Amino acid sequence: MTLLQRLVEAPPSLRWHRSSLMSRLVYPRAFGAFGEGTVIVRPHIIRRPQQIFVGAGGAIFEDVWLQCENDDSRITIGDRANFGRCVAISSTDPVTLGDDCLVGFGSLITSGDHDRVDRHLTKPTGPITIGNSVFIGQGAIVLGGVSIGDGASVGANAVVTRDVAPGDTVVGIPARSVRG
To answer: Of 81, 75, 86, which Cα lies nearest the Cα of 59?
Structure first.
């Protein structure tokens, strides 16, 4: 590998190392809980970190948006969770993700909606519970009041508006099971 190639390829690893340092020194003091070995790489927005609880051994990549909207909202992320870039989680009601979840690039998980009269206000739409070993595909949306069972898969760009059974695979808008 040439020196030029090393310079071009180095920035991602430099971002990871800088983020690893922040994740070891700053985030454990700011978050409600922050598990050992988890790294958040260059977040876009983190609001009310004291209400966000993150498990150990995870990787949360660039431009993540973790936001608790009010004093009662809460985000809980299990151990070994991996988020692609540009994932957004917005909690008006509690949002819980289990262990070993994988959330694809550009996905949105939100337990709130905007008021119909004053669009600047948000209102709760129900808690979200996502089980262990769940895969959420790129660009998927999970709306409030939904539970996704252990081992389920949500296809790319699906919009989840109702519960998903453990081990099931859902796709489409609105998301529907692909079981025969």
So the answer is: 81
CA distance 101 to 151: 9
Domain count for the chain, please give it: 1
Is 120 a catalytic site residue? Answer: no
Q: Is 43 exposed, middle or buried (0-12, 13-18, 19+ CB in 10 A)?
A: middle
Q: What is the CATH number of the domain that holds 113?
A: 2.160.10.10
Residue 23 C-alpha from the chain's centroid: 16
Contact of 161 with 125, CB cutoff 8 Å: no
CA distance 65 to 86: 7
Amino acid at 145: G
Exposure on the CB side of residue 130, measured as CA atoms within 13 A: 33
- Say what the pTM is: 0.90
Q: Provide the mean pLDDT of the chain.
A: 92
User: In whole angstroms, what is the distance from residue 180 CA to residue 177 CA?
Assistant: 8
Q: Which domain holds residue 71?
A: 3-177
Point out the catalytic residue in the list 17, 44, 114, 120.
Answer: 114
Q: What is the pLDDT of residues 101-132, one digit of tens each?
A: 999 999 999 999 988 888 888 889 999 999 99
CB–CB of 23/29 below 8 Å?
A: no
